[in-house]
Amino acid sequence: xxxxxxxxxxxxxxxxxxxxxxxxxxxxxxxxxxxxxxxxxxxxxxxxxxxxxxxxxxxxxxxxxxxxxxxxxxxxxxxxxxxxxxxxxxxxxxxxxxxxxxxxxxxxxxxxxxxxxxxxxxxxxxxxxxxxxxxxxxxxxxxxxxxxxxxxxxxxxxxxxxxxxxxxxxxxxxxxxxxxxxxxxxxxxxxxxxxxxxxxxxxxxxxxxxxxxxxxxxxxxxxxxxxxxxxxxxxxxxxxxxxxxxxxxxxxxxxxxxxxxxxxxxxxxxxxxxxxxxxxxxxxxxxxxxxxxxxxxxxxxxxxxxxxxxxxxxxxxxxxxxxxxxxxxxxxxxxxxxxxxxxxxxxxxxxxxxxxxxxxxxxxxxxxxxxx
Length: 372
Hints:
The chain has helices spanning about 75-90, 125-140, 145-150, 205-220, 220-240, 250-265, 290-300, 325-330, and strands at about 5-10, 15-20, 25, 30, 35-40, 45-55, 60-65, 65-70, 105-115, 165, 180-185, 190-200, 270-275, 280-285, 310-315, 340-345, 350-355. The protein is of the alpha+beta class. The chain has a 6-stranded mixed beta sheet. The protein has a 5-stranded mixed beta sheet with strand order 13-14-12-16-15. A 4-stranded antiparallel beta sheet has the order 2-5-10-11. Helix 1 (about 75-90) runs parallel beside helix 2 (about 125-140) and helix 4 packs antiparallel against helix 5 (about 220-240).
């Protein structure tokens, strides 16, 4: 076995607050509208990817969450092809620091998520962002990568940046201007918190983009919350309006929506808001000061199993007592075990290089380590 060139990186999940509603070009994954997301912190949710190249490898191979997958998938191939093309271009443009023979080496890719599929979070966004970011490090490709990640999974382009990120729809037919751009860094709104409630089981978007960007800049939670809920509601109303209808939300989702509105109504202000992606799990945005009480409200109306399991994972949440007045104001019938657990997190940075070689997912033989 010849010496391996190995790089490991991590990339974050993102949650859209102004959603991407469909494609105007299927192959290039060009959206019909611009979208805006919050990048979640990698301490709680991330994809880790190791890429190795070697003269000894006979073919490109990929392992996802411990299982070998078909690397001939068109979206994987377009990311690989584009990174290799840019590496060759850089070499041909006279960058002698690049070893031309290594450009023809095959790659082994190993990728794992630290969150369960059941969490209902779009793993393809973090996965393709991590793949492209890691491949770029292996092949010494620099510059704009979001357009390449977009060709793997549309929302992956937004996971290449931390904080608050917009994916600009662009106008050009070849998609060259359909790129992600950071609106604000993850440090911009330090008391914004995100709670993922894990279950068991065009006319308006452009104006909303402008309003949402302004709300984030002003750190105006009431405006941010209203826009987030309206966009989610309209997205899911459209899903129901298709034929046959698409039911992403379930009865627990509906109860979470009622819970949020009753909670806000009780205080006479918008303290929490929800959004739903293509699945039933609610993602809640709120400010740090309201987290302990709202988590307690969720626990009260969705009593978890009492056999131990941790109900809140991630950032620690203080325990508070709920007033009878608040419980009465919300007034919902409890749904035991409706929510398995909550992932407590905040806005976080974009992809990172892992410097510790012990954390590579591939061993010296170029195959996944047993733990990967």
